[in-house]
Amino acid sequence: MTALRLSPTGATARRVYGLGALAGVLFGYDNGIIAAAILFIPRDLPLTPLQKGMVVSATVVGAMAGSLAGGPAADRLGRKRILMVAGAVFAAGALGAGLAPTVEVLVGFRFVLGIAIGIASVLAPIYLAEMAPARDRGVITSLNQCTIIVGTALAGAIGFGLAFTGAWRAMLLIAVAPAVALIVGLIGAPDTPRSLIRRGHRAEGRAVLERLRPDEAGAEFAEIEAFEREQPTGPVRVRLSDPWVRRLVVLGTLLAIFQQITGINAVVYYAPTVLTDFGLSDRTALLFGFLNGLLNVVTIVVVLRSRVVDRRGRKPVLLAGLIGMSVALCALGAAACGLPTGSVALLVIAIAAFVLFTNTFSATWGPVLWVVLAEIFPLAIRGTAMAVVIVFTWLTDFSVSLTFPVFTDLVGAGPVFFAYAAAGAVIFPIVWWVVPETKGRSLESLEHEFHSGRGRLRRNR
């Protein structure tokens, strides 16, 4: 396996990459810890089935609001400033949820947490992509998904560790510490050079480039400046109405929907519930979630070290992911169709299918979607366009997660998993034909190609 070799990085680069990654940890932890906490919340706060669904899904609704607000705000005020706001909202949401005296207050603060998750889902990949050199951008932007998985694995570890005491409040309150660390870390960190230059802070933008990669700063600054001089000005609504921009937003929206419609978050949210149907105890199911989370981390680290996203390209990785996930979903569907039998063989098949599905996602659609989205949109409205697209990510996540228990109650889990697999089969030819390859290109050259029509959406390279 090829070792992970990035461009030489100084303290500034390591710091900004670490801060962008920390936002991903918070995203993953606050999104994932509810799988364990929801098992114990009813001991203190009795929940109806509807209230249980509201506690779980409140973050998704909040994330839609956070995405819509965070993207445009970051285009106007800068990436760093809005990431700091996200850190403050993370801290407030975790504190309020952990101390909630009633179900209604808990749902409200879970919604607040969702706002922070939505902001982070837009800005963390943009912050990383705009800080990274072109040749390493795939790997560095993938750190976002890597740390989301780390956060999810950490949630699994803490959930399992505290399951013996049922301390669900502690599970939620732990997230306050990394949120405060994000705020403190960002105080002295720079904004992205592209955002600074775009907002008229040329000297500051060049200074950031000098701190990130002094040997290349002059040439990169000249490219960004030359590109900016060519750009039209005007309200965001005008730029979003441009046909070439609309095509990119449609592409991004489709990819965001595709990522969720194969059922990844339904599988993650309800994995303990499904595995208990196969005969596992609650604690054993949580232990499986923790161990699988660790394996997810190993998987994405291997992907990063192999640099497959930058060497092979974005599209081949997406296509390979669809094949692997669809195979796993078919196996999971077949096992679920055999319930209830108490069969050890079916349990083994189900566990293997869960592992294959989640780890394939972690290696492919998990990181690569964020890489592509951070690359294809024009700088002037990158935050706004990402916000529009990511709202559809959360909307699809909400729809799939909400309907999973309904459909499994109506037809059983097996047909639902087969339906997710069928979605993957339908998505494959669409990705094959319309997703452009973006590896190894500067963000400015990609934007110029899309604007000129030479990078139009078609099958290429």
TrEMBL record:
Family annotation (PROSITE patterns): MFS, SUGAR_TRANSPORT_1, SUGAR_TRANSPORT_2
Major localisation: membrane
SUPFAM superfamilies associated with the record: MFS general substrate transporter
A GO-annotated cellular component: plasma membrane
UniProt-recorded name of the protein: Sugar porter family MFS transporter
Record's bilayer topology term: Multi-pass membrane protein
Record-stated family: Belongs to the major facilitator superfamily. Sugar transporter (TC 2.A.1.1) family.
Annotated localization: Cell membrane
InterPro entries: MFS_dom, MFS_sugar_transport-like, MFS_trans_sf, Myo-inositol_Transporter, Sugar/inositol_transpt, Sugar_transporter_CS
Iron-sulfur keyword on record: no
Organism: Speluncibacter jeojiensis
